[in-house]
């Protein structure tokens, strides 16, 4: 009796030890990272947010402009694409279904290359900066990316089959110098966040933290937090959440598809706590997919529908303290001021706060001076919002642009369909340029 209970105890112990050994060796080889990251640099000339990925065999660095609302990654294959591991996606395969595409090239008569295989599905990659598009084939290749524990840079891990679409010279035009494609982070099964979380099996979440400086880099995290910024701030703590809304009509792509862009439910706009008089029905998405509020890394400044733009500029000018002198406007902005009586941080009292009010009065995204004002020249600060093109009806009422999301953490959670936002991290004494890229655990 005693000996049998002893042996069952030692068996349990042995099993426990075995599990310990197995799990620690899995942890060491770490084929399952908890999170990944990409470094993001703001290009001074184009104001695009540029990242660099590693792709193909042998691996080469590929510079891409970040496209928050982009369907998937595309690279310019017309520049030449050499890799021993490229695999075209056969028509009807699961990969083609990721893109929800029925387009199929049955026969292609040029030399076999990543943009010309037989029986391969394709899609229409777009350049959301230049507003151009083309058609291209879908295929997969090796993709290598740095893993992280949210605080340190860990080893490079590899996804052997990350799907992307081949673009060409035409849609590359307009991208920052050295950039040969776009990194789509949008709401599709084929975007980088969707593919990386599915392959590495972590939660389908990613977070954007863009630096306002062109000299120091921001970061995109894939996976759960912490997202630790120096000195020691977990930017994923104290987020405010709002539902992400689906726009059922895509603006380019196939009829019947939903938009790959992320939308939030702004219900009104307040400046210094006073409601701006606008036609609030423009803020909802109509049956044709028009209206609503989206977020874009392809627009350097927030774009507002004309009537909203006029109302916001008027209310902002009115709310500016009387000792701040208005000066002639500098295009593309409509309200500029002498910076003399505005504190250098643009955070202190003075610059009116702009609140995007969300699902209830108590939930709002506050845009402070650091995110509303743009220094256009010495001593001149402008309200960094621009008017939507007026020659036709703009697609969206509000497109929150790059300047307004810099030094804010935005976490997109695709499983719960919600956005977590931090408002300016300057208020927490850190910035998006404060991830320690030189650290290693
Ligand atoms: C595609 O199929 C056609 C007809 O069978 C053939 O002539 C052509 O070489 C093939 N192209 C490629 C890229 O394999
Ligand atoms: C895929 O296409 C079908 C048919 O056009 C459409 O009903 C569905 O909403 C699409 N799915 C997505 C995710 O866009
Ligand atoms: C408000 O905008 C909606 C949607 O564009 C439009 O149908 C309506 O006529 C507008 N209302 C006013 C008072 O302008
Ligand atoms: C700054 O504020 C002071 C005191 O209110 C005022 O006298 C001065 O004209 C202001 N200067 C500018 C450039 O607005
Ligand atoms: C960044 O990490 C490295 C390596 O762990 C460390 O030596 C360095 O002090 C860190 N930088 C800062 C500013 O803390």
From TrEMBL:
Major site of localization recorded for this protein: secreted
GO BP term, example: proteolysis
Signal peptide: 1-27
Gene3D superfamilies, A to Z: Acid Proteases (2.40.70.10)
Family annotation (InterPro entries): Aspartic_peptidase_A1 (IPR001461), PEPTIDASE_A1 (IPR033121), Peptidase_aspartic_dom_sf (IPR021109), TAXi_C (IPR032799), TAXi_N (IPR032861), Xylanase_inhibitor_I-like (IPR033868)
Alphabetically ordered keywords of this record: Secreted, Signal
Domain Peptidase A1: 49-422
Subcellular location as annotated: Secreted, Extracellular space
Keyword Secreted: yes
GO molecular function: aspartic-type endopeptidase activity
Gene Ontology cellular-component annotations: extracellular region
Family of this protein: Belongs to the peptidase A1 family.
Protein known as: Peptidase A1 domain-containing protein
Organism listed in the record: Lactuca sativa
Lineage summary: Eukaryota, Viridiplantae, Streptophyta, Embryophyta, Tracheophyta
